[in-house]
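Anyone? Bumping this.
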Amino acid sequence: DTGVSQDPRHKITKRGQNVTFRCDPISEHNRLYWYRQTLGQGPEFLTYFQNEAQLEKSRLLSDRFSAERPKGSFSTLEIQRTEQGDSAMYLCASNGRENTGELFFGEGSRLTVL
Amino acid sequence: DQQVKQNSPSLSVQEGRISILNCDYTNSMFDYFLWYKKYPAEGPTFLISISSIKDKNEDGRFTVFLNKSAKHLSLHIVPSQPGDSAVYFCAASWGKLQFGAGTQVVVTP
């Protein structure tokens, strides 16, 4: 399968713990995006990378959130000191074309903070 | 601020009939508009798009219409099939994608 891969698919953690999600984009895609989706809402933009450069971060991305894409391939999204409000589906997407908006999404990592 | 809005959270349609999903936007800088389909426990999948310089794009059973003066787009699915039952997201692009809240479509036999 050469699609976007995310790991883990589901993470349950206690409030205050740190969690990390990994995303492997489609191999030839240089743009990588992170979105968050909560129940009843559409995906909300968090941040995006072109190769290893993080070019934009949403105001939704508080200081407890950090994303990296060290070699321009896979990316990680870390949430420190998780809060119950962080419970959501975290979606990764990639795009290798000029920005027509067409993104290829992974299946998501669902975070539940108890 | 919500720049892409889908005001109908749900739509029920009979198999074989037309499904019409609506979307409104506020930012005139958007250059592409897209529809994504999402099944439970899966990520959204791209369905169809339209450039802001066009007013219609058709792909099989799916047609997207864009009315720039009204800042409105719609997705027509005809004929609707049971496999079309899913959540449909409208999205608009200007550097990054912004999504509406989605419309749950249920196609009944």
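Late reply, but here is one note on the structure posted above: Chain A has no helices and eleven strands.
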